[in-house]
Fold each of these.
Amino acid sequence: MKSNPMINSFRFLAILTFVILHAVPGHGQQLIPQPSELAYAEGRFTITPETVIVPHESDDLAGYLNDHIERVCGFRLRTVPHTPETNYISLRRGGHLGNEAYTLSIEPEHIIIRGGDRGGVFYGLQTLFQLMPPEVYGQSVASAPQPLTLDAVSVKDGPRYAYRGAMLDVSRTFFDKQAVMQYLDWMSRHKLNKFHWHLTDDNGWRIEIKKYPELAEIGGQLPNNGRKGGYYTQEEFKDLVNYAKERFITIIPEVDIPGHTAAVFAAYPDFKNAVKFKTKVNIPGQAFNALDVDDPKAMQFTEDVIAELAALAPGNYIHIGGDEAIGLPHDKFVRFINKTREIVLKNGKKMVGWQETARADISEGDVIQHWIYLKQKSENSSKKKDNIPAEYKEIMALFAEFMKEAPKDPGLGISKKAKVILSPSGYVYLDHKYLEPSADSTQNAEQERLGMAAYEKQTIQEMYDWDPMTFNPTVENPQKDVAGIEAAIWCETITNFRDLQFLLMPRLAGVAEKGWSKVENTHWDEYKVRLGAQAPLWEKADWNYFKSSLVDWK
Ligand code: TNX
């Protein structure tokens, strides 16, 4: 490219002035997930009010970029159809890059982001934002215009897995539309692309179903440890589908059936409950009930609910739950899943189920989610069992049987040609309590309160140190059979959005890195430095993250 001496000398002055105002720390050490390739170069580019955006087509993603620039710089850039000589940000496509892959190059004359597809451009932008000052994650527009200088860098990047998910349990604690939007923002910032929305469980039914209004009206307002009830109207659901789509996130809605259905029975007590125990059981998170495949009313209900959900969610997948149907006879469980799977397929969708669904007649195109994988570091789990009252014997025996079967599920599903999503609880269940202390003692009470007591506490390092491809020998050929990974946050101990933030971060960032980055680029010692560099961004976003004492927060 020809360079104009006038522009060059102006740029030199501009750089001198603005680099002092806006030097970006850490030379890109703040990127999470770590890109495949990253190289620093000489020089800098300064975004000024004269900089223009050259979108790929019409206004594609330029508005989104401008929203972020405005927070840092206080001005928006013009978009132009043709690439000028210099001083532009170009958003391009093609160049033999794969889906979601991108290159980002910041040079003194310009910034060029090239994506293999639109998702790739989007992720190139996310990387660019992480190189900007923390205001980029703030809520407001900069009050006075200020140019922004960025160090020259060249990034070549693409995902390890096509499926990079995060699950949110809105049943145990309801989160409104605004909170879900923020959750989606945080996912997209870390290049996660599947939002698994756990919409129903014992504690609450959270999605309006027109044919069964009591589900949300009664099942969404159950007494729930003093927590607010609530549900999403279908309109809100659609808004969130669109909000997610703008962030390259597909929504995978889950109705958890046949078990975990106390909210359904509360709304429709005439449905037959296929689980009957002699003792009335009260184990937190466990209501022990299940829809009965031999009850025509319950099956009509299943059919109607899935039809409405399929019409609402444009993605390919519906998650039917299927976990922990303890006390439901095996034969009834299998027939229920078989029937429900047919309903999902009939509605033009594919089925995802928790790993137990591998026990039914699943097949090619189905997906199972492998979750039962604890890391027991000590013997105190058996001690806990001794404390369980004698009248629960029947249930505990069934539980033991259930857990014995569980390690076979992934292999069983694979033998039936299903694909596997990895959500091993020991690594990606973010409702584990943090083991190491916080670097900030004002977090002690929260740390004590939040997370499931039943799990052994884990440090953030222990939960980061794993490789999805090798951790579990029951998945023999992960290259072929693993679709991707997914973090899960269950909300039994969470009472509000601040609590949720506390358990989500920093661990969600670590799971995102395991889903995106090459395995050779994910080492704790190096990762924790990048993690520490997130602090200014997360502070600016007013996010209540756990300040692990294992990390030097900047
Ligand atoms: C198991 S994971 C459950 C949930 C609980 C979670 C707590 C799964 C499919 N079922 O019902 O909330 O453990 O971590």
Amino acid sequence: MTDAVLALIGQAMQHAGEVRSFSAYAPSNIALSKYWGKRDRALNLPLNSSLSISLAEWGSHTTVELSQSGSDQVLLDGQPLPPTSGFARKALAFADLFRGGRDVPLLISTRNTIPTAAGLASSASGFAALTRALCGSFGLDLQAQDMSLIARLGSGSATRSLWHGFVRWDKGMRDDGGDSHGGPLDLAWPEFRIAIVEVDTGPKLHSSRDGMNHTVDTSPLFSNWPEMAERDCQIIEQAILEKNFETLGQTAEANALAMHATMQAARPALTYLTDQSWVILQRLWQVRKDGLAAYATMDAGANIKLVFLKEAEADVLQAFPDARVISPFDWPNA
Ligand code: PMV
């Protein structure tokens, strides 16, 4: 595997200093135009570009430092994890990219500010914050764009979590992944809102990684996806630049439903949406008929995310009293 990330870290390491304690934050993000399907499974290279909105104060705080005990330690929300736990193994394997075979015992401590009840995966913010913390800890002076390339190896959606606001992940063309990274859209939309309508907060039956690969491998509908998703991504980017909320909302909702349709056609079928998800979608479509400008998007889970503008917030909360509203631009420099 010729891997642009390892080359990048290797080069940066030549100027690295002593390992020191370093803390970093990264926000979670929700894709308005989805990443679904990889052209390279080891490097998490996507078949199509995607575009997301970051979730401001909902994210991960991570500290990396030398472990005084002499062996690796991983803490999640203050609790030490057994080294065999899935989270610890993934975090330490990721840290190995930086250790490059050297014996550097690390203490990695992560605290998530995403309410557990929101049922959102924390892998996007988790790997982005870990990338930032590892770079800082090992003294690597990298641009956010380069850190985005590194975060991509942890989880595809982490590629977009290095910035606040709207972020586009360009799929890139190169086999080594060197041009497949995120970048911020240079625009603030302070009235933009996203809300999470919680359906199910339990662990999911299929990881997004497995669901994605199964869909690519078996769904006869998947062949339509990459081109359509690329077009949706362009339409949504343009709609954001023009602050055309209706086009943004319609395209984002259609894009998410099309992604879920590719899964339903997989063999055997795969679905993350539950009866309750569909009840919420039906309610949304009803209130939209009555004039509410809100649209839905759904990921590899049962929860529904709503996008709308500030002027619709009171009506959204009336229709969905449990919705948790996030103001993505209510953040310094977002
Ligand atoms: O990179 P992962 O494994 O978190 O996959 C993300 C997949 C979706 O959330 C469904 C879509 C997306 O673009 O975030």
Amino acid sequence: MLNRRQFLAGSTAATLIPATGMAAPAPVRLEPAPARVQLAPPSYPITDVWAYNGSVPGQTLRFKQGARLHAELVNGLEQPTTIHWHGLRLPNNMDGVPDFSQPVVQPGGTFDYEFDLPDAGTYWYHPHAGALEQVARGLSGPLIIEEATPPDVDAEHVLVIDDWRLTEEAKIHESFESGRDLSHAGRLGNYVTANGSGDLQLPARAGARMRLRLINTANARIFSIELQGLEGWIVALDGMPLEKPEKAETVSLATAQRADLIVDVTAAPGEEAFLISRERDEGFALTTFKVSDQAAQARRGAPAPLPPNILPEIQLDGAKTARMLMEGGAMRWLDSAAYKGRQMGGRELAQEGQFWALNGMVGMPDDPLVSASLGETVRVALGNDTRFPHAIHLHGHHFRDVQPDGALGPLRDTILLQPGRAREIAFVADNPGKWMFHCHMLSHQISGMMTWIEVS
Ligand code: C2O
Ligand code: CU
């Protein structure tokens, strides 16, 4: 780990509030391009990154629920890109999957993204072309969609948590397609940032109530986050409100997942409060809150649930069923699997940089995992027969996990499956098109773990 104890002045991402209610607001221009930022502590050199409009993370896009997002992608990279709006229920041709839902955007090229925002919540955007490298170099940003009536809080912070693999000179380590990462836990870094800072410090007032919007944009790292000097509730996961706020003890945040917290500052004036990242016995501050004077004297009760987003009801009776069996990776190497229309042995696949299979197939198959008719409920039995955790993401829909007794869990767009575990999810296929369904550990995605569903 690089030295984390030193100060780093936060480069706060600019907030952009598009005008709503006007005829045609100018599109937000998003230009991914090379940039230089002080990522590591000040005793280290500046880091060459790829960034949207020069900032890491990319600027916070903020809209009101029901508004229309209009963004123009201008590709300032020397390689093709796209933008995927992670977690949004949007029209298929706006989903950003290259040569699948849209043509890839060549260097110097542009693409207009324009769609309505039906759901409030915490989302994010990132490239879906060359994603392993492009995200690792710094391309991602928050997308916040505000409720018509936001909850009553004294402050709100968007916290983009990222994990970087840097060299001792604070350069982005260019080991993107290392066979070890592809076949193990993915590209884990050695430097963790919140909003681009290894030592993010924010002001807070004792007794104040804050909304924290946590977004994990790391390539592969799973965070386990604890509160210190703060007490609160999880009020939404992956953008979608929980029916009942849940006490936040430890917040598990797999890659691509989000959690909205409402927390009260319990630390006294002059003290510090923290969000702590725990890994085994170690912990470090993801964010430090410098607590000043008293905002409120009395503790408030649990917050009311956020207003729900309106999604169709899951009907388990008569649902269409499918399964997704995950196999491969280190210590459980594939014997053989189908790749590019041919059955291949594990060794041959490894030479192609392919290590994982879903239902015996490596990479995007010709046929969808499931074809659903519009409005149909789909149940997918997920099984993780590997030695690694996987964060499985479905595009264009939110699903719930189905407990053995039939009870339904919270709405999510990314679910973490621990090694050896099986879980079942269900969703209403109400969004027509072809949607990717893949592991969001980006190293796993490109080395086998992707498939798709079709809704028509
Ligand atoms: Cu956030 Cu297919 O990705
Ligand atoms: Cu995976």
